[in-house]
């Protein structure tokens, strides 16, 4: 009996790459051939080649449209996007780094982050202590 394997692979890129793999195995149809119209992994179930041209791919954000009757949004120049958008990917300091600095000299955003992370760490510590009891 032959087995077909389908794998779904999700990867998150960044400083530390994380790869999650989930595989599903199922038996092939009797005789090694699948019936026409039957469910299962036929040979044509693989990834489809994109029918979009390279020009369309580079000028539009394909798949970002959430409305039924609207078109995909066009890619704009960097100067046409708001300034706050470019700061979303900035690395923010960790709790250990914030604890080493003087609290009085921290900017408001870092002070808010310090309070949030410190409260979260304190809650986790209290939960672990109460779980042991």
TrEMBL record:
Provide the alphabetized UniProt keywords. Mitochondrion, Ribonucleoprotein, Ribosomal protein, Transit peptide
- Protein name, as recorded: Large ribosomal subunit protein mL54
Q: Where is this region: Disordered?
A: 30-55
Q: Which residues form the signal peptide?
A: none
State the compartments where it is located: Mitochondrion
Question: Which PANTHER family would you find in this protein's record?
Answer: 39S RIBOSOMAL PROTEIN L54, MITOCHONDRIAL, LARGE RIBOSOMAL SUBUNIT PROTEIN ML54
Cite the InterPro entries for this sequence: Ribosomal_mL54
State the similarity comment.
Belongs to the mitochondrion-specific ribosomal protein mL54 family.
Its chief place of residence is: mitochondrion
- Provide an example Pfam family for this protein: Ribosomal_L37
Any one annotated GO CC term = mitochondrial large ribosomal subunit
What molecular function terms (GO) are annotated for this protein?
structural constituent of ribosome
Q: Which organism is it from?
A: Kalanchoe fedtschenkoi (Lavender scallops)
TM spans (from-to): none
Question: Which superkingdom is the protein from?
Answer: Eukaryota
């Amino acid at each position: 009996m032959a087995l077909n394997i389908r794998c779904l692979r999700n990867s998150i890129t960044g400083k530390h790459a994380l790869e999650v793999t989930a595989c599903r195995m199922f038996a092939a149809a009797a005789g090694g051939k699948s019936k026409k119209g039957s469910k299962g992994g036929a040979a044509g179930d693989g990834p489809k080649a994109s029918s979009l041209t390279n020009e369309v791919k580079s000028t539009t954000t394909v798949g970002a449209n959430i409305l039924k009757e609207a078109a995909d949004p066009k890619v704009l120049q960097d100067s046409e996007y708001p300034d706050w958008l470019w700061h979303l990917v900035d690395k923010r300091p960790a709790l250990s780094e914030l604890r080493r600095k003087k609290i009085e000299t921290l900017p408001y955003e870092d002070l808010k982050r310090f309070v949030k992370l410190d409260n979260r760490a304190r809650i986790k510590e209290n939960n672990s202590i109460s779980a042991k009891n």
